[in-house]
Model the fold of this input.
Amino acid sequence: MRILIVSDYECDFTRVLKSCGAEVECVDFKKVLKTDLTVYDSFCVLPKKSGTYLDARLREKLEEEARKGKRIFLQAIRGFLGILCEEPADSTKSRMIYIGNSEEKITGLFMGDLLDDEANLMCVPELHPEDVEPILVYQEHIIAHTHTEMPVQEILKRGKPGLWKAGKNILWAGFILRNFNEARFSPRAKWEAVIRYVARWITGGEPAFYPTEIVHYGTSEKLDEPKIFECCRRKAIERGIGWLERFLEDGGKGGIKEGIAHNITPDGNYTVLDGVRTDCTGESAGAFKMYAYLNGKKEYADLASKMDGIVYGPMLVKGGLFDGMVRWCTSSWNVCYQDDVARALLPGLYDALYMEDATHLEDICHAMDFLIGTTAKDGLRIARTDTHDLTELEMEKLRQQEHGFPSAHYNAYYHAALLLTGKASGEKRYIEVAQKGLERMMELYPETAREQSETEEMCRLILPLAILYQTTKEEKHRQMLYRVSKDLQKVRHPFGGYREWDTGYKAACSRESREECSVLTENGDPVADLLYSSNWLPLGFSFAYEATGDRWFHELWKDSVIFCLKTQMFSEKEHLDGAWCRAFDMELKEAYAAPHDVGWAAYACETGWTVSEILMGLMMPEIFEKKKIG
Done:
């Protein structure tokens, strides 16, 4: 059997086709115009861009071969025979549903299985869609994780064909699939079933080759052995620090870039989030400082100092009505989120309390004073403030409100920063505000104002509650810490992470959101969120163990670290190697979740929030130990 591939270059799919045992030839789109198509039995057409119109000369000859009954596979072209496709449209928030077809099934897939083609461009039938038989159907914002029970009629009514047959001998993909591996189509096993099916359909043979995954997740070492665990922990830190260094702005003098967005193009390219955020810069500086402190590497301390020059320099307002306000980021100069401020400044408090460096304590006190000046009577602050809304009168109104926003997402780390500021400065007023705020949230718990999920709220509360008990030593505060920590164990997955859970689906960014969105679709999904939930636990549990001395918390810390060691990315791609993605499916054992978020879905990697917070959590017990030894 002779197969002709029309493609301008080698790709994942051509390599698969060449392994099928058929006689395969590959020509580019110029040379094919002079090629005799009549000598071939089957064709595979792989243009570079979605929405390509075939050259009229090629189309005429190829349609003639189609009328002879020869098999032809088409990728994302605008028209063939009597079928015209629409202008390409972004598929980032869409996935495809497998519905099969009347003649044959794809081995390894079941009706309703979901497949994600990442940030592709779907080019789907516009005219005469009745002439096509869908196999995979695009649908946007599917409220399901890996499988839907939606009836076929509803799938077809609301969806658009993604992979379809036109007659007996035309198989047509409405998306770019040629570099499916580079683009990290997921779930990987389901896409392998599709790719093998298409390859067999074209060539008649079974592929002997399938590309190795771009990313391997986690170590395969036996982490229950103490020496191996310790070795892997240190290696994970080294690799994470190396990943952070690749995103520095002007060698750290300009801070650090935010990281990588979720979107992966059909050829495997990523969007770098190149804005400089204060939180990411402060958190990453914290990871570098701890690494320098524990390993005697002065160059990383110097690097962190340069980054602190951004946090405590242009991003900190000095003087005037907004004295002490910490700016959110370079693109939102006049916005202040207390959670972001806290995460940016907490490393400076770790310096002051545990690493004998109080350089920035005075600035941190100013920042906390500004936040307190816009905090309600119950110790809770609204989600954010904007300078164009703030006057002396408006700030007084905020202070006189009975209640602020009872959300751990927005306030818990603010309280942690207040508590540590009080401990470092000796000023009780910071501790008093934090205590009021945390006690108020725990009065409402578990019905706090959720942002992403109930799981996030629990994970966010561990650190501040641990510091609260460490500060006051009051029994009621110890009970609060244990209550939340035990509740959290109810959503632990056997793989070691914590499932996203949201009783009643009440979170602001729950599954229905069309903007920032949870990676949860249904309670029970085996997905862990390392941007908003599980990422906080190594640091939180390390403080809980330090506060209580209870070995149970040490085991929880170790368990959370092992989860991180099993989910860190290994890759030859420098922008991936050493990082953690936002979402990890603990049963598929790969990054995967609903792609509904505007930019921070499953494959997003944040310098702050995720990577630096995990790294600090991996190092914090060592910091505590070194402090005790003196």
Remarks:
- The mean pLDDT is 97.
